Amino acid sequence: MTTTAPEPRSSRALSPRALFEVVTSAYVPLLVAVLVVLFPLLWMTLSSFKPLTEIITQTPALLPAAPTTENYSTVAERLPFGRVFLNSVLVTAVGAALKVALAVFTAYGLVFVRFPFKNWIFAGLLVTLMVPPQVALLPNYTLITALGGADTYWGIILPGLGTAFGTFLLRQHFRTLPPSLLEAAELDGAGHWRRLTRVVLPVSAPTVATVALITIVYEWNDYLWPLVIISKPEMMTLPVGLTLLANVDNRAAAYGQLMAGSVAVIVPVLIVFIALQRHIIAGLTQGAVKD
């Protein structure tokens, strides 16, 4: 007598009630969260193509009735957009590269180089993460202006280099690497530079990419410090340039231009974020492993 093995539970079709519970418990909250995040971006993008009469109205509509690119042309006329955009690119590229390099070297030293008081130094770095950046605004402004850094690229970049976030994330990841990798390289006569470039960095690419991407987003969107240290329009970055647009006209009349300028600020970094988002997931997962 042969018996038929019971069908695995995973292959059985869900009942309508169970399917409804799965959808309502998982997908509906996810959909609501996505809408909450995306709707302001969608509204901003569509509003950048609306004339002022469609933005300031008692009967607002999502889609523009008479789409126009006048807001973008006005932004290009009233703001040295090409120069401001290049300023943001330069400040972001140089600042992010220096921050990532400092984070890599510091994290490597804290993990793989033997010297006294390493844990105390790391504890001091963690303390800096708990200090709001606004606290250092006045001391940084006094120091940079005394050194002649007002309205300069290095004056924008230099104070932001003292951040411990990348060091913390990379240190936690480096501590999860198998010691045998470094020991084998050391037996082959590799020094610290070769061990870093030939062993540590190749296997840590997702985490390094995560630190780089988060740093790029922060540098691109930084507003408060460039606003304080820069006064010349030709040295402004994109977020600060939006303030210049708001000051040209009264705030209500500049809504359309501000929407267009905001789109110009967000779209480049959004494209980079979407292209590299898988590195964020992989990097944060590796860096979160408890040792």
For this entry, give a set of tags:
single chain, 291 residues, mainly alpha, MetI-like fold, 15 helices, globular
Descriptive account of the structure:
With 291 residues, the chain is mainly alpha-helical. It has 2 domains: 55 residues, no CATH class; 217 residues, MetI-like (MetI-like fold, Orthogonal Bundle). Helices cover 69% and strands 0% of the residues. The chain has 15 helices and no strands. The chain is globular, with a radius of gyration of 25 Å. It starts with 15 loop residues before the first helix and ends with a helix. The C terminus is likely disordered.
The CATH superfamily title of the largest domain: MetI-like
- Low-confidence sequence ranges: 287-291
Question: What count of structural domains?
Answer: 2
Number of strands: 0
Order of helices and strands: HHHHHHHHHHHHHHH
Beta percentage is under 5%
Count of helical regions: 15
At CATH level 2, the architecture of the largest domain is Orthogonal Bundle
**DSSP helix fraction:** 55-70%
User: Main β-sheet: number of strands, strand sense, barrel status?
Assistant: none
CATH class identity of the largest domain = Mainly Alpha
CATH topology of the largest domain: MetI-like fold
The geometry reads as globular
Oligomer: single chain
Q: Averaging pLDDT over every residue, what do you get?
A: 83
Radius of gyration: 25 Å
Q: Find the structural class using helix and strand composition.
A: mainly alpha
End-to-end distance, in Å?
A: 55 Å
